[in-house]
UniProtKB/TrEMBL annotation:
TPR repeats lie at residues 6-39, 73-106. Belongs to the PPP phosphatase family. PP-5 (PP-T) subfamily. PANTHER family: SERINE/THREONINE-PROTEIN PHOSPHATASE 5-RELATED, SERINE_THREONINE-PROTEIN PHOSPHATASE 5. This is protein-serine/threonine phosphatase. GO terms for molecular function: metal ion binding; protein serine/threonine phosphatase activity. Its EC number is 3.1.3.16. Pfam families: Metallophos (PF00149), PPP5 (PF08321), TPR_1 (PF00515), TPR_8 (PF13181). Its cofactor is Mn(2+).
Length: 467
């Protein structure tokens, strides 16, 4: 009888997994595990957790799978996948090595093993290079206009290199038609945005007056055609229509370069109307794994990796709207009684791997009170009590954050004091979720708009799917 019930739950969960309903699948795998745990159930639940980017929990389940059956290859494969996502490449190598020993014909495990080796070499190389470099790559690199081939049919800047809204629209049309921008023009755009970003504080202070509109967008993740759909539905930035993009503009999606160049260009044209936050994916560690650097090397030149790394270090970390709404990519830090004044003093020109900056970009809200470790492996999970305390200590009313895919495109939690907004519909082409954005008028009433994914050209992916 027990066996029948376990198989029933497992079969239903497998069906839900195929339909990309990962949270529901997890519930059923959990019910089966509670009756009679086995290595397969833990392995299956592990991949569901990793699909939801809960890599630490996925690793825990992979380890339990191995404990129950040390000769089950998939347990080690899941372990290697989780460790890779957690950037623990040397440990991941050992897990994939075990898969190959148990299943010598597993071609995928051999590929992942080689990918781990490649990442370890890359890290060592980048460390060696960083010790040698003293100057900014913006000061040492040059791109010659004369190198543009005669048959180039991509976007062209005017002779004075000055961007206007109409010129940006021309660039967008070129991108829509899958034309790759030449390195010379891309470099000119990056030089201009560097001048703007370098002068910005960690915390932007924004206002919304009569007849003005502020739109807050969450993760875009390289989904260029969905970004354009937001503008089609909601309008492009103007002097009275502000946009705030709350981090994770790149990685995963295959058009991250087009997304970031479009947003940088709009920021250049409308410096007071377009605001860009740093997310956890605006960092070299993530970009090297989740596709952006590979995309940049493919479409432009490997030299652009250092340029984008420097620019991402310059992105502001948060905004406060009308002294009432706090907007940040991830969430709150583990430190109790955290004050905005502390955030203003952080040196943001670094990788967000530890400390308060890491928490701000990586943390998630949870249902339990207090602070606990994050299943992501970085940041923390904070409860409604911490949200309330932070708001009271800083005389604020609401937190808006992103960082997590939500099936409806958004989620309101923590006694209506915290909103998650996610703007990448059908995330990664496999989640079937809505996207959303939030509009604010001068009265600061929350107006959430949902939207669905639009078609995009089929193209290669630039990151290794470890699952």
């Amino acid at each position: 009888m027990e066996e029948e019930k376990v198989n029933e739950f497992k079969s239903q969960a497998n069906d839900l997994f195929q339909k990309m309903k990962y949270e529901e699948a997890i519930e059923l795998y959990t019910k089966a595990i509670e009756i009679k745990p086995n290595a397969i159930l833990y392995s299956n639940r592990s991949i569901c957790l990793m699909k939801l980017e809960k890599f630490m929990q996925g690793l825990e389940d992979a380890n339990k799978s191995i404990e129950l059956d040390p000769k089950y290859p998939k347990g080690y494969y899941r372990k290697g996948s989780a460790l890779f996502e957690l950037m623990k490449f040397e440990e991941a190598i050992e897990a994939f090595k075990q898969v190959v020993l148990l299943a010598p014909n597993n071609k995928l495990a051999r590929e992942k093993y080689q990918l781990c080796q490649k990442e370890i070499k890359r890290i060592l190389f980048e460390k060696a290079i960083s010790r040698e470099l003293e100057k900014s790559p913006f000061e040492t690199l040059t791109f010659n206009k004369n190198d543009i081939p005669n048959d180039y049919d991509g976007f062209i800047l005017p002779e004075n290199n000055i961007l206007t809204f109409e010129i940006v629209k021309e660039m967008i049309e070129s991108f829509k038609n899958e034309k790759i921008i030449h390195s010379y023009y891309a470099f000119e755009i990056l030089k201009q945005i560097r001048e703007i970003l370098s002068k910005l504080p960690n915390v932007l202070e924004l206002s919304v007056s009569e007849n003005q509109l502020l739109t807050v967008c969450g993760d875009i993740h390289g989904q260029f055609y969905d970004l354009l759909n937001i503008f089609e539905i909601n309008g492009y930035p103007t002097e009275n229509h502000f946009y705030l993009f709350n981090g994770d503009m790149v990685d995963r999606g295959s058009f991250s370069l087009e997304v970031i160049l479009t947003l940088f260009s709009l920021k250049i044209v409308f410096p007071q109307s377009v605001h860009l936050h740093r997310g956890n994916h605006e960092s070299s560690n993530m970009n090297s794994i989740f596709g952006f650097f590979n995309e940049v090397r493919t479409k432009l030149d490997f030299k652009f990796v250092g340029l984008f790394t420097e620019l991402f270090d310059l992105l502001p970390l948060s905004s406060i709207v009308e002294n009432k709404i706090f907007i940040v990519h991830g969430g709150l830090p583990s430190k109790e009684d955290f004050k905005i004044e502390e955030l203003k003093k952080i040196d943001r020109k670094q990788q967000p791997d530890t400390g308060i900056m890491c928490d701000l970009l990586w943390s998630d809200p949870g249902y339990a009170i207090g602070i606990r470790p994050s299943p992501r492996g970085l940041g923390v999970v904070f409860g409604a009590d911490r949200t309330q305390k932070f708001l009271e200590n800083n005389d604020l009313q609401l937190i808006i954050r992103s960082h997590e895919v939500k099936m409806g495109g958004y989620e309101v939690t923590h006694n209506d004091k915290l909103i998650t907004v996610f703007s990448a519909p059908n995330y990664g082409d496999n989640m079937n979720n809505f996207g959303s954005y939030i509009n604010f008028r001068s009265d600061l009433k929350v107006d959430i708009k949902q939207f669905q994914a639009v078609p995009h050209p089929k193209t290669r992916t630039y990151y290794a799917n470890m699952m």
